[in-house]
## 1
Amino acid sequence: MTQTTLRWVSCVCLWMAVLLPLNSNANERPPVQAQSGNAFLSASMLAMQNDPMANPISLWLDKGKALWTGTESKSSCAQCHGPVENNKTLANQFPKWSSKLKKLINLEDQIVQCAERTSQARKNLEDPDVLALSALLHQQSKNQTILLRPNTQHKEEWQKQLNAGAELFIQRMGRMNLACTHCHDQNIGKRMQADLISPGHPTGFPIFKMSWQSMGSIDRRIRACYSGVQADIPQPGSQELRQLELFLKMRAEGLAMDGPSLRR
Ligand code: HEC
Ligand code: HEC
């Protein structure tokens, strides 16, 4: 085992030791390291999130549903995948190693791939249609736990990607010379400008971020964190972003998916 894997494994063991005893008492709030981004929302944002009439995500879900069933186009997602309600465990299993593309892909990458199988026009990653379909599939996976299965034929490759993500998470970067871990492990609950720093769990994506006035994927959010520390920002879709996503999801394994969420 490499040092990174060891470090990572021992981190998971500590994690389990903290989580298990507390979770057995239903009256206890989860320990702060296990809280999703929703636990850090203001009361007014939470109220908006819980009110479908006020929550802008409702419109994105409607749009996703129309694209899925294909009222707008001849060939649709449903033709191959059936009713969307039958697809509850897709979004919680990404990113995956694609043996076809020989790289790690996330749900939005898969949607872009599949959109080419329909009569919809070619899409890029942050296309509103891709985000709407991503929101729809994440909504189906709400309350499912994150479940990543390394494909048995590509276990080694998968592990390599995970180790790379773990390495990136602790690598200092940018003019602020900070790593992800400095904020999302060591400063949880502290205020940074108008935000409270959360553990950075990947359970609430895609997000509708008020300051973007749009949905955005986890890819865009992580790029925003690079920008926050004034580091060179990776290209959308780059492997380092997928490796970080894989690491974040392994780090959050066992947590439930929140479905698409509102952010400030
Ligand atoms: C200087 C502090 C800082 C650093 C370093 C940083 N982030 Fe963030 N990050 C934030 C803040 C602030 C937010 C918005 C509030 C929140 O959700 O934590 C955020 C949000 C996030 C979220 C969204 C969580 C949610 O539920 O909406 C993810 C995921 C994330 N960061 C991942 C990363 C990754 C991966 C790195 C390293 C590449 C990183 N961050 C580096 C400060 C930081
Ligand atoms: C012509 C058939 C076809 C159509 C239409 C299609 N897909 Fe797919 N989809 C596939 C196949 C085949 C796979 C298996 C992986 C691959 O080859 O990309 C797949 C895989 C997927 C997966 C991952 C499933 C898993 O278990 O890993 C998702 C998510 C997905 N498609 C979403 C969509 C969406 C969203 C649309 C509509 C934009 C769509 N698909 C349209 C054939 C299709």
## 2
Amino acid sequence: MHADSTIRFFRLLIFAIMFGWSVGSPILESQRLLADEQAVRESIAKGRDLILNYRFLPRDFHQATFDDTWQDWPEPLRSQAEHLSPEGRRSMALKRYGFTPRPDDPTKSMQFSVDAEGWWTMNCFSCHGGAVNGKMIEGLPNAQIALETLYSDMRQTKRRRGETLSQMDLGSMAVPMGTSNGTSNAVVFGIALMSFRDKDLNLKLPFRMLPIIHHDMDAPAWWNVSKRDRLYIDGFVQKNHRALIPFVMDQMNSGETMRGWEDEFKHVFAYIESLEPPVYPNAINDQLSHEGAEVFAHHCAACHGTYGQEPTYPSRLVPIKKIGTDPVRLTALTEYDRRVYRDSWFASYGADATVLTPQGYLAPPLDGIWASAPYFHNGSVPTIEGVLDSKSRPVVWKRIATSHDVHRVGLSVDKFESIPGNVKRPDEKREYFDSTIPGKSNTGHTFGDELSKAQRAALLEYLKTL
Ligand code: HEC
Ligand code: HEC
């Protein structure tokens, strides 16, 4: 009996395999799919691990230096730190620089890779890993990152300790990292670093140093990358893994090194594409949100797409005159800069679709929009309430708590007409967002202004569900 059934089983198996060879067996097909799925899962995990633990950039500073920065902090911070335990000081430092501790090792930060010898190096989460209510969300723009404060503190501490300055310490002296916490001059860093490269990314002397217009940008949410086919606020770059490599363009990385990271960045890309938007954590008024969905369909969906069961995303580029948000980013990246990018290895020497003269900004997908404050590409508006009602946008604002503002939906802020006169220290000034500075204006996108107060309230409720 037993032997019989075994023979029967093998006959069936052989039959299945032969059948599979000729017409594609459903059994083999499902095995192949399982193997593919497994490979994708492994690639995603590898990508995340590379971001957190691989060193794509030169070492920035040692753990011992990081733990010692408090000695150079301005008063009263220094005295406060002096009376704390090393752990207490470390959590003050994490807070000052906008870092979140690693769940498995709170002495380390999610925003920096740390090697076995204790050297810290900036990673993508510095700008693409933020927190809501103190909880880190991967892919969320980091609304607290204070890179300018970090590197200017580092330079001071290293000088006192007689240590050598890192590439980033020096680079941030030439190109400022940002005038307000939570935003960064990342695009200009890219332009400046690219001027030292030929089309194969080999280092060369810059033959043309054009005047550079510094401007701060708020990083976009990574979980929306899967919906896009082109990257950046003006959509000038075709989406693929090579387009991620400019973020590790450092003078210490040769062209050969960067071109050799193609496989690594395929994993990083798989990880970014796998991210899902965070779900709104509080109760939602269903009736109100239902009404808001109607308003959205009439006033917003043509640009921002539809959500729910079968989402659509039109990838609509809105002319700058029509959108009216800050125009500096559009012109600061010149046609010349875009052409240099297009002709380089990053865009496969012109094979990728690079837009040389975009006329405006792409309406972004709004998934997880409740979490990704502040809003607009320059991070000029702290709440969705302000996006929907341009008259309510504060001229100057300062974050007052890490908690989420559930009424206005976004950052909890204090509002000002100008930066208070008694705020003198540069690190303190960077806690304020001043929309009167060029590149930081909060104008435009007035589509919500024409709505009634009740419609805006309903819309706000609906936006929480995306
Ligand atoms: C210093 C801050 C900073 C760091 C570090 C950083 N980014 Fe970004 N990233 C930005 C900003 C700002 C933008 C938006 C630029 C724009 O739209 O012009 C951006 C945009 C992107 C986009 C396009 C997203 C979209 O929807 O258009 C991707 C993808 C991306 N970054 C990947 C990375 C990767 C991968 C790393 C690490 C290797 C990284 N970034 C490190 C600031 C940063
Ligand atoms: C004509 C096209 C258009 C219409 C209509 C429109 N938007 Fe937008 N929206 C945009 C563009 C373009 C941006 C990016 C602007 C920028 O960052 O400078 C944007 C940005 C936003 C943002 C900020 C996104 C972020 O990640 O910072 C929100 C929120 C938003 N829109 C909501 C709405 C709502 C709600 C409506 C309906 C009342 C609406 N929009 C109508 C084009 C549009």
